[in-house]
Amino acid sequence: MLDMKDVNVWVKGIMNAGISGGTVAISTMVIAPETFNFKEGLSKLLYAALISSIVSIAKYLSTNPMPVDLPNGDHKP
Questions:
Q1: How far, in Å, are 39, 59, 60 from residue 23 at the CA level?
Q2: What is the DSSP string of 16-70?
Q3: pLDDT on residue 3
Q4: Is residue 69 predicted with pLDDT exceeding 70?
Q5: Which residues contact 59 (CB under 8 A, 6 or more apart)?
Q6: pLDDT digits (tens, 9 = 90+) for 26-65
Q7: What is the pLDDT of residue 21?
């Protein structure tokens, strides 16, 4: 039987990966404030945060696939 604790850990890992990907936008603002800012560059800033979050989540999923039940009753993380 699949343990909900495993699923909860997996979901929290995805959320953490998304948040850490979004923090790249903050460092982008420090590196290039004239391009990535809250005024004219807000759309670019949000796009950078989105793409970075997607990449971080994909990396997390490649190393931590969704926990599944196996036919014999065991489960793999």
A1: 18, 16, 16
A2: HHHHHHHHHHHHHHHH-TTTSSSSTTHHHHHHHHHHHHHHHHHHHHHHSPPPEE-
A3: 67
A4: no
A5: 17
A6: 899 999 999 988 889 889 999 999 999 999 999 999 998 8
A7: 85
Query: 13 is written with which tokens?
Result: 């890992």
Taking the CA of residue 17 as centre, how many other CA atoms within 13 Å lie in the half-sphere pointing to its CB?
A: 19
CB neighbour list of residue 51: distance below 8 Å, 6 or more residues apart: none
Q: Where are the domains of the chain?
A: 10-63
Rounded-to-integer distance, Cα 24 and Cα 40, Å? 18
